[in-house]
Amino acid sequence: MIMNAVVIAVCLMLFLSFIRINVVVSLTISAVVAGIVGGLDIHQTIAAFNDGLGGGAQIALSYALLGAFAAALSHSGLTTLISHSIIKKLGKEPNSGNTQVVRWLLLITILLMAISSQNILPIHIAFIPILIPPLLHVISKLHIDRRLIACILTFGLVTTYLILPIGFGGIFLNDILLANLNTNGLNAVAEQIPKAMLLPAIGMVVGLLTAIFISYRKPREYMIEQPVISDSISTTISRKSLLVSLSAILATLIVQLQTDSMIFGALSGFIIFRFSGIIKHEVSKDLFNQGVHMMANIGFIMIAAAGFAAVVKSTGEVSTLVTSLGDIIGDNKALAALLMLIVGLLITMGIGSSFSTIPIIATIYVPLALSFGFSIAATIALVGTAAALGDAGSPASDSTLGPTAGLNADGQHDHIRDSVIPTFIHYNIPLLIFGWIAAMVL
Q1: How many domains does the chain have?
Q2: Residue of 301 and 366 predicted with greater confidence
Q3: Is the per-residue pLDDT at 316 higher than 50?
């Protein structure tokens, strides 16, 4: 099991990322190692990697255009007005009282937006590069630890689809989890899924509360590059700018929901800005380049992650890893549940998507769980939690890449140390514990 290609490649990728090797380079090197250890020759490995690159192109282009849209929105003046309004609520002489009120309002607003992005307005991570960069000045002024913001965003992105069968949660719980469980002989019904996933979701809540009240409650200093906005600076924008900005936001949401494409959603918003007269012709090119540059690193990571996942799947070592559990477990039911969850963690961290992990592991996990006498509810919790584990802490997951895309707009938020490691600690560990408890008590 230790010499399995998936285990070696994921551990290598995490190690290289941790020692500050660029994530794209880490993914590429680890993909080559996965292929060779998994029995592919160098040509087969490169071919599989190249074939997989196309799978990340769509999300990479989506990020680039969202960055351009975010830059245009910021240029319109609307985001400056929002930041100024929040700062004014602090008063000319900030005190512990008004600072705490604004701090909590900001954190709660970000949390509610992250949750609603999965169901009420199912736009997933599209809101982050639009909402967060304009607020970085305020976040820095309030001395809020950006690792806390990353944890809040990831909580909303992940926990929501684990427990609420609406929007992305409906896709994860019903279209993917339930469908794959029943395809492999479990005979579960839709009503059982959210109930079985309740305990793992509680683990996520424990992680969030730990981040808020223990880990990141202390102030953290950031360099404030913008000057503090004073009363002498105008806080108004023209009615035309306001209408154009709101129209662009609305168009972006509507087009994305109608086409199920962040690419065309962001493009429509940018086009409205460009031809409204708010953005001059000579400025639009620079804004577009600025936005694309802001998101370029995230896009390349997603492309490399797709290539890495393709190589891992081509080796066939995922099935080998899961079936090797039988040789280790014996008749120990508690150990079986723990190892199934740990293997799910490794697989999801490598692939970078819990949605893509379920079809891979359900085929073997369902018969294995039933052979150990796990109930239907316990099997649901095992497979669902095993797939979700790693989504929060993977360098290649959009649940960590999305927060980094917004929080690192000014270059003060490291993807690995400020997004990946904090979310791994606060969510994967409690999710592992509560998922194991669910498997044993349900």
Answers
A1: 1
A2: 366
A3: yes
Tell me the average pLDDT across 75-79. Answer: 68
- 129 is a domain residue: yes
Q: Which domain holds residue 271?
A: 5-217+240-441
Range 375-403 burial, b when 16+ CB lie within 10 A, else e? ebbbbbbbbbbbbbbbbbbbbbbbbbbbb
- Cβ(263)–Cβ(61) under 8 Å? yes
Q: Output the CA angle 333-335-338, nearest 5 degrees.
A: 115
Q: Which residue from 416, 363, 375 is spatially nearest to 394, judged by alpha carbons?
A: 416
Residue 232 lies in a domain: no
**120, part of any domain:** yes
Res 229: pLDDT: 39
Residues 409, 137: contact at Cβ < 8 Å? no
Q: 309 and 346 in contact (C-beta within 8 Å)? A: no
9-46 as b/e: b if 16+ CB within 10 A: bbbbbbebbeeeeebbebbbbbbbbbbbbbebeeebbb
Residue 232 has what pLDDT?
Answer: 38
- Checking 18-26 for CB contacts under 8 A at 24+ apart, the result is 18/416, 18/421, 20/416, 23/301, 23/304, 23/395, 23/396, 23/415, 23/416, 24/297, 24/300, 24/301, 24/304, 26/395
Residue 275 is predicted with a pLDDT of 83
Share of the chain above pLDDT 70, in %: 87
* Alpha-helical runs (H) found in 389-428: 398-407, 421-423
Whole-Å CA distances, 411 to 74, 181, 271: 17, 43, 27
Q: 352's torsion region: left (phi>0), alpha (psi -120 to 50) or beta?
A: left
Tell me, yes or no, whether 224 lies in a domain.
Answer: no
